[in-house]
Amino acid sequence: MDSPTATAESDWLRLTLPDWGLLRWSAVATVAAIAVTAGLLASGGRLGEAEQPMAVVQSAFLLEDKVISVAVAMEHKCMEQRGFDVHPDNSGGSDYILVPAVDEANRTGFGAGERSGNGVAFEARPEAYQRSYKKALAGYEDWDYGSDQPLTDDSCLGRTNVAVWGTKEGVSRPLAFDPDLQQTIYGEDPALVAAYAAWRVCMKSKGDYPDFKTMDDVERYAAELYLDEDAEYDEASAREIRVAVDASTCASGAGLRDAYTAARDKVRRELYHEFLPDILAWRAQLAAALRRTGVSLATD
C-alpha cells in the first residue's frame, strides 16, 4: 500500500480523500496536469480531443485538492461559530511508494510516530467536548468518521456539503479509484507475487518479527508499537525505525518497489480507461463545486 492518504477522518466530505500514491506524479506530469486544469472553467470539465485518461485523472485530483481545502475551511468556520475551536487533525502522511527509502526510514520510519500525535489536542479534550463536537459536526453524539448515518440538515457537515456540492449527501469518487479494487487486481500480478515472496524471505532473516505477508502488515505493526502503554515513545520510535529500515532494505533487494509500481500503474491505467466517463463526470462535479463556492479553477 502507498503511504497513508489524508486520514479516514476526512471522510466527512462524503468522498474518499486522494490516495497520495495517485498524486505522486513527476514534475513534468504535474505541469501538464496544471495546463489541462487551466481550461476547465471554459470547457465545463469536458474532455478535450488530445486529452488522455491519465491527464483527466491528474487534472481532477488538482481540482479535488482545492475542493477539499475549501470544504475544510468552511467546516471549521461553522464549528468555530458554534464554539468548537479545537478540531481533529486530518493531515496526511509521508510521500513514499509502498515503503520509504532506507535513508528516510532511518529518520522517520513509516511516519507512524508522527501520525500517532495527530489530533492529540482534540483527543485531550474531555469526552463531553468530543461528543458535543460530533453532534454539531454531523448531528449525532456517537457519530464516527465513515459512518452511514445520514447527516442532519443543521450539522456543519451537512451545511458544508450543500454549500460545496449542492446536496447534503455530497459526491463520491468513481469506482476506478477504490484502493481495495485496485489491490485485488494488481495483487495477483506474477512479478509482484514473486517479489513479495523474496521480500518475506529477507524479512524472516532480519529478526524476531511476526510473519509479515505484505507491507500493509508491517505498517500496522509499526502503528501498534505506539499503542503499548508500557512502552515509552522513544522506544516505540526506535523499534519503528528498525522495522522500517529492514523492510526498506529487503524491498530494495527483492525489487519489490519496481514490481509493485509496475503492477499498480498498469491496473490503474486500465481502470481509468474503463471508467473514463465516470471520471469525466466527477471532474465536472469538482469544477462545479469550485464555481459554486466562488473559487477560481486556476492552479497556483
* Strand/helix succession: HHHHHHHHHHHHHH
Instruction: Profile the largest sheet.
Output: none
Mean pLDDT: 81
Low-pLDDT stretches: 1-45
Tell me the number of strands: 0
What class would the helix/strand composition place it in? mainly alpha
Q: Write down the overall geometry.
A: flat
Rg over CA atoms: 21 Å
Roughly how much helix do the residues carry, as a percent range? 55-70%
Number of separate helices: 14
Number of domains: 2
Strand fraction equals under 5%
First-residue to last-residue Cα separation: 30 Å
Keywords: Membrane, Transmembrane, Transmembrane helix
Overview of the molecule:
The protein has 300 residues and is mostly helical. It folds into two domains: 1-86 and 125-174 and 275-300, no CATH class; 98-118 and 176-272, no CATH class. It has helices spanning 27-38, 40-43, 53-81, 102-108, 112-117, 120-123, 127-138, 156-165, 179-186, 190-204, 215-224, 233-254, 256-274, 276-292.
SSE layout:
Layout: H1 27-38, H2 40-43, H3 53-81, H4 102-108, H5 112-117, H6 120-123, H7 127-138, H8 156-165, H9 179-186, H10 190-204, H11 215-224, H12 233-254, H13 256-274, H14 276-292
Helix pairs in contact: 1-3, 3-8, 3-14, 4-12, 9-13, 10-12, 10-13, 11-12
Defining key terms:
mainly alpha; 14 helices; disordered N terminus; single chain
Summarize the model shown.
With 300 residues, this protein is mostly helical.
